[in-house]
Specification:
The protein has six helices and 13 strands. Strands 5, 6, 7, 9, 10 and 11 form a six-stranded antiparallel β-sheet that branches. Strands 3-4-8 form a three-stranded antiparallel β-sheet, with no helix packed on it.
């Protein structure tokens, strides 16, 4: 599909579908047209999206990459998907890919994020250009920072607090963040999101520091990432703003030592008793 970037942008704009979403589907379905579906040697010509509209899969050919891109963009914008209120990758997935839905969501999401798209809304915002570089660049968010562990400790322990600190800036124009959210997943899978209590307005060249304390009350792996919501209402993942950490027990509680009647030392897990 080399050389089809203009077609992705053109058809995405024409139908209100984020071009990054169109590219992401082609990547997830056929590795951008490298591995097309075939049945008994009959290839689905130019069908990089596995968009099956014919009486059989093998009958769902297109005459060119451009036709395929145009037909799929129109279909996504139509009554089956956007017209039915299905606008996020997660909402579209069960209808588009009823088998292997979870893997499809993961792959399409990964490609969209690499292209600067928003998996939470696959529609193209009014006036947006889609894939970066296709039109005048919109204001961009810059992010730096991350996790700050407690002073003097290499590994955080249960019961401690860590601070997540980010510096946000705007490039190529002003940017209003209606919401800044630190998405946090605890070791037990519970969401512990921290959300700003007001909008953040970024002028070009101006930086704002945001901080959030995080109480580690569960042993295990914690993970998180930064999300923002702009004036357009699009939740955008700020790439490079994620973190992963493991909360452990304090060393004094990691094991208790006991002596058996014969004098041998036994090591038992915390909370166990000697018989």
């Amino acid at each position: 599909m080399t050389g089809t970037g203009a077609a992705f942008v053109r058809e995405g704009r024409a139908h209100g579908v984020d071009p990054a979403f169109l590219v992401a589907i082609a990547g997830a379905e056929t590795s951008f047209g490298r591995f097309l579906y075939s049945s008994g040697g009959d290839w689905c010509e130019f069908n990089a999206f596995n968009w099956f509209y014919g009486p059989t899969r093998a009958a769902s050919d297109f005459s060119s990459w451009d036709e395929a891109i145009a037909r799929v963009a129109a279909g996504l914008a139509g009554p089956l998907y956007h017209g039915a209120g299905l606008t996020s990758v997660a909402d579209i997935a069960p209808r588009y890919c009823p088998e292997g839905t979870g893997a499809w969501v993961a792959n399409v999401t990964a490609f969209m994020l690499l292209l600067g798209g928003d998996p939470a809304d696959t529609r193209l915002a009014e006036g947006a250009g889609g894939i970066a570089g296709a039109a005048a660049a919109p204001a961009r968010l810059t992010v730096a920072g991350g996790l700050q562990p407690p002073a003097g400790r290499r590994d955080p322990v249960v019961g401690s607090r860590v601070t997540v600190r980010y510096t946000l800036g705007a490039v190529d124009g002003p940017l209003t963040l209606r919401e800044v959210r630190l998405a946090v997943v605890a070791p037990d899978g519970e969401r512990r999101d921290l959300v700003s209590d007001g909008a953040v307005v970024l002028a070009p060249g101006r930086e704002v520091v945001v901080r959030a304390p995080l109480a580690l009350d569960v042993i295990g792996r914690w993970s998180g990432w930064l999300e923002v919501r702009t004036d357009e209402g699009l939740a955008r993942l700020a790439r490079g703003a994620g973190f992963v950490l493991t909360a452990r027990l304090p060393r004094r509680l990691e094991a208790r030592r006991w002596r058996a009647p014969g004098g041998d030392e036994l090591v038992r897990a915390p909370g166990t008793a000697s018989r």
